[in-house]
Amino acid sequence: MEWIRGERIGHGSFGTVDIARMRNFDNCSVMAVKSCAYSHSSSLANEKEILDVLKDCPQIIQSFGDCYSFENNEKLYNVLLEYATGGDLGDKVKNSSSGKLSEFEVQRCTKSILQGIYSIHENGFVHCDIKLQNVLLFSSKFGGNNSIKIADFGLAKRARKLNSGCELRGTPMYMSPEMVAGGEQEAPADIWALGCMVVEMLTGAPAWKCRRETDFGGLFMRIGVGEEVPEIPKELSEDGKDFLGKCFVKDPRSRWTAEMLLRHPFLANDDLNCQVTSTSPRSAFDFPDWVSEQSSQMTVLPSPECSSKHGSFDEFDNFESFSTWPAIRLNELVTDQKTPNWSVFDSWVTVRS
Question: In the prediction, which pLDDT does 69 show?
Answer without folding.
Answer: 93
